Amino acid sequence: MFCSGPPDTYYENGVFQAKLRFPSDYPLSPPKMTFTCEMFHPNIYPDGRVCISILHAPGDDPTGYECAAERWSPVQSVEKILLSVLSMLAEPNVESAANIAAAKMYRDDRQQFEKYVKRTVQDSLGLVEKTSQEQTKK
């Protein structure tokens, strides 16, 4: 699937490829969402896994950070997941970061964060020219 960057955000105009994988016991357990393209965001792990409450297993959070109502429940829908991801892109939660470097940059150097994300958006559109070293890694 593809997610469009929300308007009026750093991710605006980007088109980001992602996968939503459903476990065998869905809807009792949440699906897992992973961006398959490069994403620089405080709530997306460097390997592309999305870290938001709605995708966390149901029940109480063992760390006490999230309440059970914020986590997965079988009544959630794919639409609700996608809306939550778009909301996450618009408003990162640096208090619960999956990518520490992105969270620190977002908090401490917004201008540099915007520069990184702009490159991510351009890359999602095929507008970034790869160096010969980056091309040989693939």
Automatic annotation (TrEMBL):
Any one Gene Ontology BP term: protein modification by small protein conjugation
GO terms of molecular function: ATP binding; ligase activity; transferase activity
Listed transmembrane segments: none
Name recorded for this polypeptide: Ubiquitin--protein ligase
Keywords: ATP-binding, Ligase, Nucleotide-binding, Transferase, Ubl conjugation pathway
Family annotation (PANTHER family): UBIQUITIN-CONJUGATING ENZYME E2 (PTHR24067)
Active site: C51
PROSITE patterns membership: UBC_1, UBC_2
Similarity field: Belongs to the ubiquitin-conjugating enzyme family.
Domain of life: Eukaryota
Domain UBC core residue range list: 1-126
